[in-house]
Amino acid sequence: MSVVAAAEPSKLADRVAIRSWRTPILLGVFALVAVVLFAILGPDGQATFRISQDNDAWQVPNLVLPAKAFGIVASLILVALAVAAWLQSKNQARVAKWVTMTFAVVFVIALMVWIIGGTKTQNITLVGLFAGAMLITTPLVFGSLSGVLCERSGVVNIAIEGQLLAGAFTAALVASITQNAFAGLFAAAVAGMLVSFLLAAFSIKYVVNQIIVGVVLNVLVSGLTGFLFEKIMKTKVDGVAIYNQPVHLPDLPIPFLSQIPILGPMLFRQSIIGYFMLVLVVALWFGLFRTRWGLRIRAVGEHPKAADTVGINVNRTRFLNVMAGGAVAGIGGAYFTLVAVSSFSKDMTGGLGFIALAALIFGRWNPIGAALAALLFGVAGNLQSILSLAGTPIDGQFLAMLPYALTILAVSGFVGKSRAPAASGQPYVKG
Amino acid sequence: MKLELRGITKSFGALIANDHIDLVVASGEIHSLLGENGAGKSTLMNVLYGLYEPTAGEILIDDKPVKFSGPADAMAAGIGMVHQHFMLVPVFTVAENVALGAESTTFGGVLNLEDTRRKIREISAKFGFNVDPDALVEDLPVGVQQRVEIIKALVRNAKILILDEPTAVLTPQETDELMEIMAQLKAGGTSIVFISHKLREVKAVSDTITVIRRGKVVGSADPTAATTELASMMVGRSVSLTLNKADAVPGELTFKVTNLSVMNDAGHRLLDDVTFSVAKGEILAVAGVQGNGQSELTEAVLGLHKRTLGSITLDGKELVGKSVREVLDSGVGFVPEDRQDDGLVGEFSIAENLILDLYTKAPYSRRGTLNRAVIAKNADAKVAEFDVRTQSSQSAADTLSGGNQQKVVLARELARPLKLFIASQPTRGVDVGSIEFLHKRIVAERDSGTPVIIVSTELDEVMELADRIAVLFAGKLMGIVPGKSSRELLGLMMAGLNAADAQAQLDAPVAPENGELP
After folding, report:
1. What is the model's pTM?
2. How far is the alpha carbon of B103 from chain A, nearest alpha carbon, in Å?
3. How far lies B498's CA from each of A197, A225, B275, B491, in Å?
4. Does A17 touch chain B (CB under 8 A)?
5. Could you tell me which chain B residue has the CA closest to the CA of A313?
């Protein structure tokens, strides 16, 4: 029997009928902002990007750009791209990908030049920007990998924030008492798993709404660590708060690799937690997409009943994954007190657990994607703190909302479709 | 391999789904389980497959008692199952789905999908399945997805294959192909348990038939038994399977659809340039395999789709671009295909459900306040008129059986004077007794001079009710043929041939070789 070709008639008329002006309008607005800010209000003088540090193996000369001229050129390009987008919408009813991509890149570069040109010093160290970003990126990556582990198996983990905080507190306490940073690291993983155990027990065994359990756990951990911080860590022995002086994990620079400009200080002058992070991202990606373990986990997160009918124990898989996720987030929490800063302070994770959730979504539930999203958020966050010191034309608090704005754009489909595991958040109850 | 079930009982709380069921499936036979929706067929098979634990009774394989604590045990014992709702992960490839749970791996648990692909190709070649191991399951037509399910069972060396309502989603031609596959499997020594409520198929394929009613085995029958005999065993009383309706007396063509296209957000045409009209006093049935644009057609008429091209007119008035409220007020009655989700509010009472679209109007409400007494009186009248079996018209709608729920929906939609009546899947999941009643009401509405559109994926229902039959395939209209057209013609059209080509193929002296679906 012959079959009519199922190929769709992608007639122009059809596309015009569903045409959306969203992209050209958005680009137009941004192009207008660019004209006003970068060209008309553009600062005089130059923006200097310092790329190499003095002790790097190769010295790369600084990048110097005249701010005003660059602003004019960039805003002209942006206007041209916006017009191209409008024409494409009108004639072909869709905007080519390269237009939006180029627009985004040019806009970000022009924004940077404008901001740097507007500061008092008119220069920025890229090494500082990226290496400093790791302070934020590292816990974000661990948090979002915890999210990957949980959500890929079908459990929404809102409690990442709580797991990070529990890890940070426990690491500080145990490392102070034992005077051993690795004991602190181990204890942090256990603390994260304890939070996970509550999440798993309530959401998998007792089928309580996962979002609610997660939120409650965050409040619980915040309250508990705050209380113990006041009662234990502030206790002074001989005038010293001995329970909040954790031993730190040393930095372990890798010879040669750590000399590479920008990448060296960023990736190869880290503590053991940082290297573990790099390994974990790759290992988790490989595990999820190339091994039996990952195939089963993804099946459980997509279609638990199908997994059940081929003999996979759905709830046990979920339980184990949530526990593993807790350990990962706990180690991420340890980074705060064993590497980043010298001691624990109340609510020191400051909402990074929620940004980790955003990174997870932005990275499309893929370990590598989530890590790159975490890096982006880390750079944005660090840029904000650098700029608030350098005295910029725009308020640092304004830049601080960048990760959230990006996430909203991501989940609303501007950066391609983001598709969650189909059964994420749905408890599995056998008939 | 011989399979025996002895005294299987399965109860969910007070509800006894299976009541001391005995069943013997001999080696290499096709054993049909015949019963209405809700008779307990699927529950029984889920017990057999280890998904449910039986409350009492035992399972014997080759006369040795076995106990399954989960599907893994059942599979290890050689039982495979193709579920009514496929147990396939849509975002996985065929190979990944087949491998899942029985993966070949190399060192350290790394997947070796090449091994699985080879097995799929072997089985595919042996039975002529034509399945690409690397295709994404969500991109495959349901007929092919079903073959993937069968491959899944065969890769695990199933000796007994349970097919749960396998033909519900297939075209008549695909059904014929499935039956050929079943015959091949049987020839290869596999026993098959075939679950269905379609008498014609059961008769065509079975070696033995066991009839189940309300969780009990009511008897077994020979495939040569008369259709009416099987039907009365299944239902428990004699039923007339043919609706004696008078010929239609078509009047004026009042409902016209011209060049109607419906698109999804990506610009994909779900309904493509469809033109037809319906006269007063006739039933136009829209046939086709599920998902070929039927839902979009009815939803577009009602105004539920925003990306619509073309025109829909009722009594000369344009409906495209109107709100749902305006469309309903212009005299359109609509029975949605999913009564649980779209037709009723489950927690609302029958009385409230009966005025879901009338509550703003007198006498049901006045100045924004509902008139409870009138609503209750209306409900009692409708419950009596439509023979809704319920304790009270104040019971929640979701306490009713499928057939009675559908009667409530129909009663509501027929309560207003109509200029057009659309019913989508009016008898899906409805018991045979209610089907009779619902069909009679639909024909009565036609005879009162309303243009009627019935959408159904059940060819039997289409042929029963239709004065004319329109067939949709991939969103396109394959043609409109008279209601008395042959099953073969409709089957070819449902598979994508237009009316003329399909007729030509039937008239051809030698039928051409059957091709495969892509």
Report:
1. 0.80
2. 7
3. 60, 72, 14, 11
4. yes
5. B70
